[in-house]
Specification:
alpha/beta, 8 strands, two-stranded antiparallel sheet, elongated, 248 residues, 17% strand
Length: 248
């Protein structure tokens, strides 16, 4: 497995963090999830391949446990808003002094700086601020959030995973860890690079829901079928469109 021998300490959180930890575990990393005492454990159901323990981070003894874990770990994954870890005496300045090779991954909604850094949010808020939400939905209707996949899991969890893997690779050259500031707003905006860079080439010039790839074309959309279910049609190329018309 690609990440065999890599040790990860994951501080328990909601969907994006657990997903990131699960991906690392799926590829061989040894992941230990640190739950809060009295919590319900793996509420996101993304604990595959992980071990866990419960710690009270409000008590010095609990903080000491996490510090000992991080002193031997390759990666720390934490999901808290800006300033929380520092208040717990678990900030990167402390942990990386004790373990200079530690990769300190911070996964938040709005990042570690700026006026939103200490504000709570959800996938739909991050998606909106990234600009992507304005492009999703039917013509004449409100923008429509596509579940909580884009910001939470793609722009957040998966982007953070990529950052960790790149930091592990960089460490093979420098021998040093680093701090990863992964956040769902910027991660989602980065994912949408193609969307913004192709606005003037004919793909997205029309209002939402009236473009080639957002439901505005009859050959690239969904239709309700006679049995009450739905069918997705993606006949972009002329030869496939011709087959579609013949079959219709």
């Amino acid at each position: 497995m690609a990440l065999q021998g890599v040790s990860v300490v994951e501080l328990a959180g909601l969907a994006p963090g657990p997903f990131c930890g699960m991906v690392l575990a799926d590829f061989g990393a040894k992941v230990v999830r640190v739950d809060r005492t009295g919590s319900r454990g793996d509420v996101s159901r993304l604990g595959r391949g992980k071990r866990s323990l419960a710690v009270d981070l409000k008590r010095p003894a609990g903080v000491a446990v996490v510090r000992r874990l991080c002193a031997r770990a390759d990666v720390l994954l934490e999901p808290f808003r800006h300033g929380v870890m520092e208040k717990l005496q678990l900030g990167p300045e402390i942990l990386q002094k004790e373990n200079p090779k530690l990769i300190y991954a911070r996964l938040t909604g709005f990042g570690q700086s700026g006026r939103f850094s200490k504000i709570a949010g959800h996938d739909i808020n991050y998606l909106a601020l990234s600009g992507v939400l304005s492009k999703i939905g039917r013509s004449g209707e409100n923008p429509h959030a596509p579940l909580n996949l884009l910001a939470d899991f793609a722009g957040g969890g998966l982007m953070c995973t990529l950052g960790i893997v790149m930091a592990l690779f960089e460490r093979t050259h420098s021998g040093k860890g680093q701090v990863i500031d992964a956040n769902m707003v910027e991660g989602t905006a980065y994912l949408s690079s193609f969307l913004w860079k192709t606005q003037k080439v004919g793909l997205w010039e029309q209002p939402r829901g009236e473009n080639l790839l957002d439901g505005g074309a009859p050959f690239y959309t969904t239709y309700k079928t006679a049995d009450g279910e739905f069918m997705a049609v993606g006949a972009l190329e002329p030869q496939f469109y011709e087959l579609l018309i013949k079959a219709w």
